[in-house]
Amino acid sequence: MAGNSIGHTFKLTTFGESHGEAIGGILDGAPSNFKLDLEAVQLELDRRKPGQSDIVTQRKESDTVRFLSGIFEGKTTGSPIGFVIENENQKSKDYSHIKDVYRPSHADLTYDKKYGHRDYRGGGRSSARETASRVVAGAIAKQFLQHLGVTINAFVSQVGTIKLAGDLTKIALPKQENDVRCPDSKVAQEMIAYIKAIRKEGDTVGGVVFARITGAPMGLGAPVFDKLHADLGKAMLSINAVKGFEYGSGFSGVEMKGSQHNDIIQPDGTTLTNNSGGIQGGISNGEPIYFRVAFKPVATIMQDQDSVNSKMEKVNVEGKGRHDPCVVPRAVPIVEAMAALTIFDHYLRNKMTQI
Amino acid sequence: MAGNSIGHTFKLTTFGESHGEAIGGILDGAPSNFKLDLEAVQLELDRRKPGQSDIVTQRKESDTVRFLSGIFEGKTTGSPIGFVIENENQKSKDYSHIKDVYRPSHADLTYDKKYGHRDYRGGGRSSARETASRVVAGAIAKQFLQHLGVTINAFVSQVGTIKLAGDLTKIALPKQENDVRCPDSKVAQEMIAYIKAIRKEGDTVGGVVFARITGAPMGLGAPVFDKLHADLGKAMLSINAVKGFEYGSGFSGVEMKGSQHNDIIQPDGTTLTNNSGGIQGGISNGEPIYFRVAFKPVATIMQDQDSVNSKMEKVNVEGKGRHDPCVVPRAVPIVEAMAALTIFDHYLRNKMTQI
Amino acid sequence: MAGNSIGHTFKLTTFGESHGEAIGGILDGAPSNFKLDLEAVQLELDRRKPGQSDIVTQRKESDTVRFLSGIFEGKTTGSPIGFVIENENQKSKDYSHIKDVYRPSHADLTYDKKYGHRDYRGGGRSSARETASRVVAGAIAKQFLQHLGVTINAFVSQVGTIKLAGDLTKIALPKQENDVRCPDSKVAQEMIAYIKAIRKEGDTVGGVVFARITGAPMGLGAPVFDKLHADLGKAMLSINAVKGFEYGSGFSGVEMKGSQHNDIIQPDGTTLTNNSGGIQGGISNGEPIYFRVAFKPVATIMQDQDSVNSKMEKVNVEGKGRHDPCVVPRAVPIVEAMAALTIFDHYLRNKMTQI
Amino acid sequence: MAGNSIGHTFKLTTFGESHGEAIGGILDGAPSNFKLDLEAVQLELDRRKPGQSDIVTQRKESDTVRFLSGIFEGKTTGSPIGFVIENENQKSKDYSHIKDVYRPSHADLTYDKKYGHRDYRGGGRSSARETASRVVAGAIAKQFLQHLGVTINAFVSQVGTIKLAGDLTKIALPKQENDVRCPDSKVAQEMIAYIKAIRKEGDTVGGVVFARITGAPMGLGAPVFDKLHADLGKAMLSINAVKGFEYGSGFSGVEMKGSQHNDIIQPDGTTLTNNSGGIQGGISNGEPIYFRVAFKPVATIMQDQDSVNSKMEKVNVEGKGRHDPCVVPRAVPIVEAMAALTIFDHYLRNKMTQI
């Protein structure tokens, strides 16, 4: 009800503010007797952490996850998996410059009016730091899915106006991600150069993350309100800074005719085209699932801006601190995590379809 | 769990197949002691029904809603509102041509594999007929919202490649909708002509519905997973044929810089621009909420197509029956209904934020 | 949220007031491709209906269920099962004697204060008539359970001070239920005579329903809050007029020592005794599950009583109408239905325990 | 779904095994801007902890709660309250005597069969240690309720066959609890002596906790499945070792006639008697709410017992360790906590009844 949980059968609940004691979560519904690779979880978390390259925020946070329950002798027990990531140095910071200020396009004003009391330190609960907990849970979901033969990959397909061309559903992925997490190294260089230039201006820019899921069995998704793409869409739209979601042909499908758009089914069950994005009637059809997620430019810029304070008086907001000039490189593991949570939740739900 | 419910506090559960006995639903959580205009509900349902103009399907269904509970002496009682819409002539149809056939880009194959047993008559549960129940519930939600000063309007902004230009957040809406439900009568004429031409080809085409919500108070939405736009997105993506959702600056915001995209807050609490689409940090900020919903071309076309039957043998699918050449005109009241359900659910949830 | 649903995976939502248009429900989550015996559902409903013997209310209601969806060619489709039971003659009654009166130990006062508007006709939503919808859904659950080898039987073990003696977990059940649904025909005769005498006084009396479930596999129930007996307890306590629930040794177990109470496990997995009532740590252990449900005397008596009206003025409440002098005979199928819904919900949930 | 959460609007999810790293939980839905007394929470936890008197287990656990989020500058923020209680010395214990043994009337066998993998250390997730997390959350709920004028008190009314006589709904409570938490000091002495004698035998005994709630406003509870007493019952039955729940007249009400049992309403809205236990039609009527909870004798006894090992071979289970001879004294704060969580959840839910 308060919006801190996602999933029905495989359910993640998170807690924590960016500068409180710690963040963390409870992952409930993980099947038992499954060997987990906890180092792989930490590696996934490292893909999201600040300071990993020179085009992301230079804040230093080690982001080490500690598991408190639900795992015994290396295997899941079926009990809820509780975990925490301590916040470091959270007490030493000075927040006087934002304490009474509502920053433009941040959640400061809306939180204060909704709750009547706000943790103003670094965005509090509205900070994207919360997504670290999602990456932990998503990394666990990925291991279950891997066991089932399902692979989830996301990458950056656009930064500002620089776009990756061609059929992204089939683009080869390098073994090693580059700093911007765009699989085409030439385009990646352009993106990196652009992000650096933007950062020099004290500005920020948006981007698109493209995700594809292969090996998902037919039958995932529920027909009406919990269509697979509806749940994927909600999961993606719940990530900070996301403004749009489309799957399969998406917004461009609008301009097509039915005779072009229809995916002809072959005797082997595959389809000639995949405008459906691997989902028909809300249910996976065994083809690759793919979708695009639009991220706006980060609201925190290194420029002065007009705004108001908590008395609704005009003030100047200083641009300071260490922030991402473009959020999409670090968003890639978050998109993958949310996809993994959604797909595995529907995998478990599908087990109840037939007696 | 089985995906037939939406909403937390104001919750709709629907039932029914396109050619079963009846469709209907239970709307649970409607506040009590509220005078409902049941004629207004029927009028809203009439906006969705087949046969209302010559650019939609010519099927004849009267779609009359009958309320069974939850309303007494014209007012809500706080008990669940049960309602049914009888399906007419559902027994007389001949379905032999689709009984064993999996139509392209339909849910036939995925349903059959998921459930092992399928109501093949007219799509069964996967038919968009189910959305009539949503319109009933949404029309009730609209009345609660109207009482609170919240207005929801949707219209068609694109059909195929024909687009409405200008700032759609401010476009004037005519008192009377035209057949295609596009507020600009000149563009509407183009759209109508195009749809007629497409129909003549036995083909179909996609479109976009634009929605805007004014008067929503600040504070709606929950911070993390149930961000207001995440729940709106899921609600829209759950509508048949939807391929994408974006709000505020959406996918075009990707190309903007932070310094352009940020909405500067004024001392009166409004913002200079509204790239946020009325939602900041997942919570409404009092500005108009607006979003776009992409609909693919209808899968049922009046042309022969290749496909497979339930034995996975190659077959020809005949194009026959009476179907919409373009779904967006009839989708307008459905988009409004889903928006109303989502907004009012969050209105009720927000009542619990402070003691 | 509004309390009209029960179950997680196999979920029933009901609607309807005693004297509205109709009552009914939506059963969501029924596994697909399962042949249902709809006549058996109606027979179960007949066990609950008024007028079936001379110790229950003499009201005439045919209680015929009509299925609207979710069943095709005799088998479940996995879509929600919508059903209605029309209320007969609901418009002809005269309620002037209770319209503005709050009857003692009824929900009249609490509903009016909670909702600000009340359907005063025959109790409205608080009427036990709502339980007919539960019996429909429970009868479907029973068929799934029967397929799995699980049997649920309830019977009357006490009326007023007349109690069935001996080990009720092993008492033989007759093929044909008698009017009071007590398996010992001698005790049944006493109970029937007592109920008739009570009715002659214009009074009512309470009773106990004993239920036992055999064949339930090991592993049903979730460890912490959704312990199998906690969900059974809630399901029973949700039935009108229930005041208490105990399982296994129950309240009498309080007086035992651990060395007596412990159920010694045998090499074949059974236990020497069954004080645990078939549930250990909230999870079924394969032994018979059994519990007792206490029903208070019906609040509607055929005697004059003091009370207040809606202006909180003293009034006399007339005893009139046709009501049950003792609720337990008709409660037996309701107890069975709620047990079946709970057990089958946990059966489905248990499918997700291991990958 | 996995049963580790309780509550709809005010929702507690717990994690943790008795001998894992830590236990804890997330309390979601706490209203914002409310000053919390965190010392009072710790004091409540101290009422539950081991070693507090010589009639409870002599294990030493400090049970110190650490709050990680949701509280800022002493006040709730509306964000989820995450908390942990570290388990001390959890690694030093020797569990070889129970590793492969299924103890009688414990959850060892059922967990192992359900999950295929079990944390055998001290009961793991099935240990009553989990209830410490409930006491933390319940202590927070109590503070909200105190602010609203609602008081919750529980006490021990029976140990073995020693019962507190008289009208327990009106018994005076001493300022200071005695070791057994029975308000009558003479009966308390008997109980204490009995528990000591039982412990000397290496045995255990059951008991009853009586709870009463005063000051609850009219209108709490939802009519059908979430009746206030149904949710209270489930909450109580979810506590380890509970075998029964009754409210108001309970099982003894069975023997009463309607004319005796009915609570006559007075012009001031109170009732002459309170056989209803403060709840009519599932909704609080403003009278004191009271109920009784039956606890079985603790399964761990200091005597040798027959049982089986994980190969289902006959074995002898040694009686060793430090355990409670009678659980009810320490159960009192747990019962209060679960009552507080349930009542406050319904308080919040009731805010949505009228617009």
TrEMBL record, chains A, B, C, D:
BP terms from Gene Ontology: amino acid biosynthetic process; aromatic amino acid family biosynthetic process; chorismate biosynthetic process
Binding site for FMN: 125-127, 240-241, 281, 296-300, 322
Cofactor: FMNH2
Domain of life: Bacteria
EC code(s) of this entry: 4.2.3.5
Catalytic activity: 5-O-(1-carboxyvinyl)-3-phosphoshikimate = chorismate + phosphate
Cofactor, how bound (note): Reduced FMN (FMNH(2)).
Pathway: Metabolic intermediate biosynthesis; chorismate biosynthesis; chorismate from D-erythrose 4-phosphate and phosphoenolpyruvate: step 7/7
CDD domains in UniProt: Chorismate_synthase
Coiled coil, from the record: none
Protein name from the UniProt record: Chorismate synthase
Classification lineage: Bacteria, Pseudomonadati, Bacteroidota, Flavobacteriia, Flavobacteriales
Gene behind the chain: aroC
